Amino acid sequence: MDAAATMPVGAQPGAFTAPDAPDLDALRACVHCGICLPQCPTYLVLGEEMDSPRGRLYLMRAAAEGRIGLSDVFAHHLDLCLGCRACESACPSGVPFGSLLEATRAQFERRAPARTSSRLARFALSVFPEPGRLGALLAPLRLYQRSGLQSLARRSGLFDHFPRIAALDALLPIVPTASPLPERVAAHGTPRGRVALLIGCVQRHLYPGVNRDTARLLALAGWDVVIPSGQGCCGALDLHAGGLETFRTRARTLASSFPEDVDFVVTNAAGCGSAMKEYGHWLPDDADVVAFAARTRDVSELLATADLPLGPVDVTATYHDACHLAHGQRIRREPRALLERIPGLRLVDLPESELCCGSAGIYNLVQPDMADRLLARKLEHIAGTRARVVVAGNPGCLLQIAKGARARGLDLEVLHPVELLARSVEAHERRGAVR
Ligand code: SF4
Ligand code: SF4
User: Fold this and answer.
1) How many Å lie between the centroid of ligand 1 and the Cα of residue 85?
2) From ligand 1's centre to the CA of 50, what distance in Å?
3) What is the three-state SS of the chain?
4) Does ligand 1 lie within 6 Å of residue 82's CB atom?
5) Could you report the per-residue pLDDT of 188-238, keeping only the tens digit for each?
6) pTM exceeding the 0.85 threshold for the entire prediction
7) Hey, whose CA ends up nearest to atom 1 of ligand 2?
8) Burial environment of residue 173 by CB neighbours within 10 A (0 to 12, 13 to 18, 19 or more)
9) Mean pLDDT, to the nearest integer, of 149-155?
10) How far is CA 66 from each of CA 6, 74, 122, 142, rounded to the nearest angstrom?
């Protein structure tokens, strides 16, 4: 509903304008009960009402009702929000915090003057969702790592005066050599259907093995897998930053680059899957995009019921819930059930497993202090489990937790669930080979 339409006579016009003004009815659905507060990472760390979901909703509603404008203070509290949507999972009133946040950020993005934190954000948003550009950037970084320059630069203290560059450098894993995927992986046995795989932007360049394992496992589960060439970005980062028009363009382009005659579109990146499943909310009149969204599944949803040939993996592992899998897609059981099926694997509970690790898209680059505090909390819990492997279904979480583990010298592997499953399949095959 347009805020202006509900304005009392004599009141100030609301600070939000069409299109995409945050829904005033949804803002008013918050009954200020505070149940969400203990689930909010920024509230847990700062203890400030305005850095809680309730406080942020209060600010959004005040702006919608014309009591405040799009001020720097308002922007600051929104900037600190991770968009993790833990508050949505907790809220008994069903307040759709994620879409309200995205719509409010879009208002700032469109109308407020440039803000100080936005330069690095704009750089990241111009590179990460562009697979070609990201690949071109990573090629010299591969050389920078392999030549020893990275170690030299870190030891010399070169980055001490550039904390955001240092944050970017610390996040960078060993950049793998590019190896393209085939356009089709045939199902083992009689196909049960046909799926199309999203290979992501960060995932395809930094974790190509995750895509390879995903395609292989889906094929073992009986799916014919197509991997459309030329597929671009899902737009998740733009959506979270309030770049709604760019997000819509990316959504339309991505949907049109996938075949329509597949049973499912599969993703192994929680952030991508969450954004894709919400295409219908932002593009309700585009039937093709709505149908594409309805076909989207996380890989764990398809593998959960599959009959996979699994062999023993003798390891203690713990599972971190990626926010956009647990809160964005309400997927918690399937990845755990998959891991529990691996013979020999001991799955131990991770305290606060649903609390954000601080990655949150590009949050760890633009809000490094809060991100590091959340990462420290996450690593403390992981170390407490004594697990040798931590598992998470999102590349951002993998990068963030691996960065923290490296910095602390922890003996910890950080893996996507499909990587552990693929190891288990390989163990099964090795057993078969020696018989
Ligand atoms: S999205 Fe996450 S950080 Fe933002 S208010 Fe909700 S729980 Fe807090
Ligand atoms: S739990 Fe829901 S209704 Fe209660 S304060 Fe949080 S957002 Fe508002």
Assistant:
1) 5
2) 11
3) CCHHHHCCCCCCCCCCCCCCCCCHHHHHCCCCCCCCHHHCHHHHHHCCHHHCHHHHHHHHHHHHCCCCCCCHHHHHHHHHCCCCCHHHHHCCCCCCHHHHHHHHHHHHHHHCCCCCCHHHHHHHHHHCCCHHHHHHHHHHHHHHHHCCHHHHHHHHCHHHHCHHHHHHHHHCCCCCCCCCCCCEECCCCCCCEEEEECCCCHHHHHCHHHHHHHHHHHHHCCEEEECCCCCCCCCHHHHHHCCHHHHHHHHHHHHHCCCCCCCEEEECCHHHHHHHHCHHHHCCCCHHHHHHHHHEEEHHHHHCCCCCCCCCCCEEEEECCCHHHHCCCCCCHHHHHHHHCCCCEEEECCCCCCCCCCCCCCHHHHCHHHHHHHHHHHHHHHHHHCCCEEECCCHHHHHHHHHHHHHHCCCCEEECHHHHHHHHHHHHHHHHHHC
4) yes
5) 999 999 999 999 999 999 999 999 999 999 999 999 999 999 999 999 999
6) yes
7) 91
8) middle
9) 87
10) 11, 13, 29, 51
User: Is pLDDT of 117 > 60?
Assistant: no
Strands 264-267, 315-319: parallel, antiparallel or unpaired by DSSP?
A: unpaired
Rounded distance between C-alpha atoms, residue 56 and residue 117, angstroms: 19
Q: Pairing state of beta strands 193-197 and 315-319?
A: unpaired
Residue 168 has pLDDT above 90, yes or no: no
Residues whose CB is less than 8 angstroms from the CB of residue 56 and which lie 6 or more positions away in sequence, other chains included: 50, 77, 78, 81, 97, 101
Residues 210, 216, 218, 224, CA torsion sign: positive
40 lines ligand 2 (CB under 6 A): no
Compute φ and ψ for 345, nearest 5 degrees: -85, 130
Residue 179 has pLDDT above 80, yes or no: yes
Q: Cβ distance 29 to 94 under 8 Å?
A: yes
261 contacts 294 by C-beta, under 8 angstroms: no
93 in contact with ligand 2, CB cutoff 6 A: yes
Question: Which atom of ligand 2 is found nearest the CA of 97?
Answer: 7
Q: What is the pLDDT of residue 118?
A: 63
- State if residue 41 touches ligand 1 by the CB under 6 angstroms criterion: yes
Distance CA(56)–CA(206), nearest Å, equals 34
Ligand nearest to the CA of 96: 2
